[in-house]
Amino acid sequence: MSERTFTKTELAEYNGVQRPEKYVAIDGLVYDLTEIPTWSGANHHGNVAGQDLSAIIVNAPHKKSVLAKLTVVGKYLG
């Protein structure tokens, strides 16, 4: 895992608009969603990249099972 850290403001830049990469934070880790097909549009089921989605993912049908497939790019400081 990368030693990079992200504040809330820094993470918000990785929304696919300000920067081409799409990152989200979940439980203190930042995941790269850039190459995930379901995140190729502006949002994924109404959720946008560049945010902490820890509270959202627990209500998703897949829960946290998808996280094992994603690349961790750093830690989230909030």
UniProtKB/TrEMBL annotation:
InterPro entries the UniProt entry points to: Cyt_B5-like_heme/steroid-bd (IPR001199), Cyt_B5-like_heme/steroid_sf (IPR036400)
Pfam families registered for this protein in UniProt: Cyt-b5
UniProt superkingdom: Bacteria
Domain Cytochrome b5 heme-binding: 6-77
Name of the protein this chain belongs to: Cytochrome b5 domain-containing protein
Source species of the chain: Lapidilactobacillus gannanensis
